[in-house]
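QA checklist item 7 of 12: single-chain prediction sanity check.
[x] sequence parsed
[x] length recorded as 485
[x] structure emitted
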Amino acid sequence: MIDRSKLLADLQGATGALVDDLRTRTEEVPEVRGAVEAQFEAARDAGRTDRSLEEWREGLLAQVAVGWVLATVFIRFCEDNGLVDTPLLSGPGERQGLARDHRAHWLAQHPAEGDRAWLLEVIGRYRKLPAMGDVFGDQNPLWQFGPSDDGAGALLELWWEREVATGDLIRDFTDPELDTRFLGDLYQDLSEYAKKNFALLQTPDFVEAFILDRTLEPAIRSFGLEKVRLIDPTCGSGHFLLGAFHRLVERWKAKEPGTHPRKQAQRALDGVHGVDLNPFAVAIARFRLMVAALKVSGIEKLADAPDFRMHVAVGDSLLHGKRSGELFSGTEGLDPVLRHRYPTEDEEAANRILESGRYHAVVGNPPYITVKEPALRNVYRDLYTTAYRQYSLAVPFKERFFDMAVPGGATHEAGFVGMITANSFMKRQFGKKLIEEYLPKRDLTHVIDTSGAYIPGHGTPTVILFGRNQRPGGDTIRSVLGIRG
């Protein structure tokens, strides 16, 4: 069983060392430097950044470093839990020796190569497994460039370390329950740069359940299990997606107990959708969904698993996708920034998933920070009427959440919206347009001020909002508010 706090500390150190190693490679290897500079110039010319090359590059280095670290974590999880027969990195007992023998044999056959090439070989073998294709897809940042052989070797040595006294492997992922929650801890804290710029934060279990109870459940009753679709436009490591997946599986089991579990798993996967700006968050979400689908299907080996269809993509939910005319009118001058894609972004999948008015339940925990990329601050302000003054990202995301939900009409009901978000818009001037002009036109049903409640990890005062994408259906808004004193 993995020691989560020790694993996090160890991998934070490994990630920092990889960032330093990658930075050196971008300065010393002409092909790597050229690829990085070309990507930066394309983003700058499109208007998605106005930072300096050096500052912008740090974000890319963090993504690539975490991509490599997480790839080895995914593989170790699979190896230690017997999801593959042949260990290639390490493992408890005799499995580490087998893994090191495979490496030695491969390097002997490829004398011009080193540990970076060996790690790419290992990841490539996993990528060929149908169930892992999406996890290690083209948009995974690890494919952009890699560390030096010394940097890759240091990462391998991390997984080989054993206790001096017992000889036991220090980092053992063996878990009969195949619990992937620890990956959320890594997502949140692995990279200090990413945490600061993406506002990475897991949603606690009880908050996720509370929101799904009041969005997905009524959506199933209103629209039917066969039709219901849920999206988290800020899915992070996939906590809402996992919760929704398990609920949908249980519903399918109750409705069609004779249906093959593998088919039930795919039906549940087809009901959940997610997008996130952070590529390594999406990799974690895909991996967690894949493992959950394996468990539901009763599949014990990756080689026996099908190519599970997952609807999770890398993209900017505030920029990308099919947008309603009401939300994005007058954007003719923004074509370059709307059309631009980073190599880590899934253009086709993100455009398909981010379709206005498509979802019966829209849930999430949007970032609370102000826009860290100066070039995008004004772009979002042009796109969203509520993005006022020094707004936090929570404000335009409220617009986007409602826009993603099925609009109410004469022949059908409206989709359900639920989110936990910063309550700063309720107390600061930048919330003026949201409160006075936007929310009065939406059926806001609940305002639950949670700033006085202890929510682990949420130092920022929060509020939970529920509503439906339609004109207000009545004069009543149920509110739970603290009254100071």
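[x] summary fact logged: Residues 367 and 385 are 18 Å apart (CA to CA).
[ ] second reviewer sign-off
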